[in-house]
Amino acid sequence: MNIPATERTLTELDPVRLKGLVLRHRHNGTAPALVEDVDSLLDEAHVVPSTQVAPDVVTMYSKVVVADPETGQRSTLTLCYPPDAKPEQGLVSALSPVGRCLLGRRTGELTQWSTPAGELKTARIVAILFQPEANGDFTT
């Protein structure tokens, strides 16, 4: 399945925080592919003030429902920074493959990523159950 590229929307805090994480990885000499992926995401994103982000955009600490387009199986995920990640509890790092694909996407969009094992996964963003900015939190 070929997923068309769509514009991503990030809040003005996202590039600052993600660049900081990338700088640490770059400084440590770890995960060069990760650094490139995040750099590309940041270069291609449309950045808006936190107060102006649409409520249907996946932002940091958004709780989203995604569904496999073939099986319909749903999962609830919360996008977070690496120190808070607990994949078994649905807290996925923005630096993980699925996290990088969700960040800045909108409800209804289809997104695709490769697992660490090389398996291609596809999901549709079905709903955003919680978005900090839509609830008045503009600093998360």
First and last CA, distance: 34 Å
Which percent band covers the strand fraction?
25-35%
Looking at CATH, which topology would you report? Answer: Chitinase A, domain 3
The H/E string reads: EHHEEEEHEE
User: How many beta-strand elements?
Assistant: 7
General description of the model:
- The protein is an alpha/beta fold.
- The chain has one domain (9-132): Roll (Chitinase A, domain 3), CATH 3.10.50.
- The protein is 25% helix and 26% strand.
- It has three helices and seven strands.
- It has helices spanning 13-28, 32-44, 97-102, and strands spanning 9-11, 46-48, 63-67, 74-80, 91-93, 110-114, 120-130.
- A hairpin with a 6-residue loop joins β3 and β4.
- The chain is globular and about 40 Å long.
- The termini are far apart.
Keywords:
140 residues, alpha/beta, Chitinase A, domain 3, 5-stranded mixed β-sheet, two-stranded parallel sheet, 3 helices, 25% helix, 26% strand, globular
Compact summary:
By secondary structure, this protein is an alpha/beta fold.
Helix and strand layout, with pairings?
Layout: E1 9-11, H1 13-28, H2 32-44, E2 46-48, E3 63-67, E4 74-80, E5 91-93, H3 97-102, E6 110-114, E7 120-130
Parallel strand pairs: 1-2, 4-5
Antiparallel strand pairs: 3-4, 3-7, 6-7
Helix pairs in contact: 1-2
